[in-house]
Amino acid sequence: MAARPIIKLEWTAWDKILEGLGFLALVLLLVIPIYYYPELPDRIPKHYDATGQVTAYGGKGMLWVMPIIGLITYAGLFFINKVPHIFNYPTEITTENAERQYRIATRMIRTLNVIIVYTFLYTSYGTIQNAMGIQVGLGKAFIPIFLIALFGTIVVYLVKAFRK
After folding, report:
1. Cα dihedral 164, 17, 118, 157 in deg (nearest 10)
2. CA-based angle 93:95:96, to the nearest 5?
3. Among 140, 150, 78, residue whose Cα is nearest residue 118
4. Phi, psi of 54 (to 5 degrees)
5. CA distances from 41 to 58, 60, 79, 131 (A)
6. Stated pTM of the model
7. What's the rounded Cα separation, in Å, for the pair 46 and 61?
């Protein structure tokens, strides 16, 4: 990591779209619980198993866990993305490849941030729907879709990072 170039990357149109999508999900993640909170029963789902079925219940105050964790995660990844020279890279960073590697890495972080915040949004909304008796569980496809999106993004990043 010694003497890596510090470069301020300008956002591309795609970067702006990703940030907009992430911010929209974050706003919804905070607004939806506020809207539904008065209608919720005192006991709501607080845990789901790998198949998306409810395995534990808690007080309706648990509804704020996802928005709080989502906000902290989103903000953390947003701000860490401003310093790509401190990231770990699978290749050596030089002045010649720094901008390309930084751009690929920041795009990956931005994409992961969107995936994570939409996952929190889906889980939070699903919890509300379950609590109100409209939905049962989160669905069997929830975990596979999340894992494929998450690890697929990382694999795409690694393939791009190793290309010359």
Report:
1. 0
2. 90
3. 150
4. -65, 130
5. 10, 7, 37, 7
6. 0.92
7. 10
